[in-house]
Amino acid sequence: MLFRPRPSHLVSLALQGGGAHGAFTWGVLDALLEDGRLQFDGISGTSAGAMNAVVMAHGLLQGGRDGAREALARFWRAVGSATSFRMPVELPFELPFESLPTPPENSALGMRMMLQWARHFSPAQMNPFDVDPLRDIVAGQVDFERLRAASPVKLFIAATHANTGKLRLFQAPELSVHALLASACLPMLHKAVEIDGEPYWDGAYSANPAVFPLFYDCEARDILLVLLSPLVHGETPRSAEEIRARSLDLAFNSTFLREMRMFAHATEFVGRSLLPTGRFERRLQQTRFHLVEAEELLSSLSAESRLTAKLSFLEMLRDQGRERAKAWLAAHFSLIGRRSSVDLARMFY
């Protein structure tokens, strides 16, 4: 019998950034689209999450669910096939994933050298012509004019104002190549992206991703978080390189963790309050959170792998994302429209 989606199967998506690790989210979205039982209301994305959000919206507009799957595959394969993106990836041998590509000896040397130079030279010195292959891929694959006029989902693309640190959310009517690139602009590698005379850096500095617009501006009461950064990092870093990588991780995720802690605290407070509930309290009580993540896999990869775009690596992450999304659907689809499948207080307190 043909499945007919009900309003209770309406969800919004919060897509975290993480460079090449965003291919994991590609796999998650591909599985959700293939499954076909969920409808999508809003998508909030940062950096790689923003790329996935916009490409998915473009694909939905062009050809529905199948169009979205094709658009995502076309985008990530273009990234993986671009010569300028080909950076070696370092993967640990002990990971229990048979599909992981075999790492060559000294595979991350080139990437580490580039990151080392980035500590001593500005983007204007390292990349004076501001070469960015991603710009051509995005411009060639996304119809921004049509998306601005008729996006099939609400979009919230995060960027950070470089001079104030304030969050800037670009919504569908404001979208452009520049807005999308601003969301993924790592300041140590690329010049700030100027929009209307204002400079912007990677959105992860101010929201990774922003969840509040999905709460305030979307009809869906179910919010699915797709996380690329582990909530628990394991062993304390000791080497200078490990400390720098962990510091960046914590900086990029601090605003998200703070926002989710606020949701957890407010939900708990409203739940035990004896005062009459207003519109905000009722909405908070009705909001349900869900989670797809790959903490074991992604926390085991080197920091350099986030800047790696080798196609075999991206496809491995896609396959892992598909598996995790299918497992989540099997375990928790029945909870959509009924209750959360994650305990916010336990996760974020």
TrEMBL record:
Gene Ontology terms describing biological process: lipid catabolic process
Record-linked Pfam families: Patatin (PF01734)
Short motif (GXSXG): ranges: 45-49
UniProt keywords, alphabetically: Hydrolase, Lipid degradation, Lipid metabolism
InterPro entries: Acyl_Trfase/lysoPLipase (IPR016035), NTE (IPR050301), PNPLA_dom (IPR002641)
GO MF entries: hydrolase activity
Residues in PNPLA domain copies: 13-215
List of catalytic residues: 47 (nucleophile), 202 (proton acceptor)
Motif (GXGXXG): 17-22
PANTHER family: NEUROPATHY TARGET ESTERASE/SWISS CHEESE D.MELANOGASTER, SLR0060 PROTEIN
Protein name listed in UniProt: NTE family protein
Organism, as annotated: Azoarcus indigens
